[in-house]
Design goal:
By secondary structure, this protein is an alpha/beta fold. Helices cover 31% and strands 27% of the residues. Strand 4, helix 1 and strand 5 form a beta-alpha-beta unit. It starts with a strand and ends with a strand.
Length: 157
């Protein structure tokens, strides 16, 4: 059973769900206005958040990250630029570094027997390996006016 997909929450608001390695759900959100859409987070590098968003809209997409962890910025490279609080730019840089993420996953595997056992499964280990290859993107300061206008839809932050 595939647990990945798009759920319509309200008119023009969607949740994108991705179930990674059988242990970690990630959620992204898409808000569609009349002129453009906003994708909030891109999950892991293998999530394909942009492809999910394109199933809903062909409008130009702006990307906003909630924070700089690799399970939120992993697919940013598919878009190339993202709005992110400057306070998280350093974290995003670390979480775009393969060696940093590899060490983090090794430490996590040492502490968690279930994860260690799951990652002995070749397919899951391969997915984990792909998931920590994060393409870098350009980060943009959040707008000073504290909102995004999508065309008859204003998103405050």
């Amino acid at each position: 059973m595939n647990k990945n997909g798009i759920i319509k929450i309200a008119d023009g608001i969607y949740q994108i769900k991705y179930y990674w390695l059988g242990v970690a759900n990630v959620y992204m959100f898409l808000i569609v206005g009349e002129e453009k859409a906003m994708l909030i987070d891109t999950g892991y590098s293998i999530t394909g958040a942009l492809q999910y968003a394109r199933k809903v809209t062909s409008l130009p997409i702006i990307l906003v990250n909630t924070h700089g962890h690799f399970d939120h910025i992993g697919g940013n490279g598919d878009i190339g630029e993202a709005y992110l609080s400057e306070a998280d730019w350093e974290t995003a840089g670390q979480h775009s570094d393969y060696n940093y993420l590899k060490n983090m996953m090794e430490h996590y595997m040492e502490r968690s027997l279930p994860v260690r056992l799951l990652l002995k499964i070749p397919r899951l280990n391969k997915d984990m390996e792909k998931g920590i290859h994060v393409k870098k993107c350009r980060y943009i300061r959040l707008p000073a006016e504290n909102f995004f206008e999508l065309g008859n839809r204003k998103v405050l932050f």
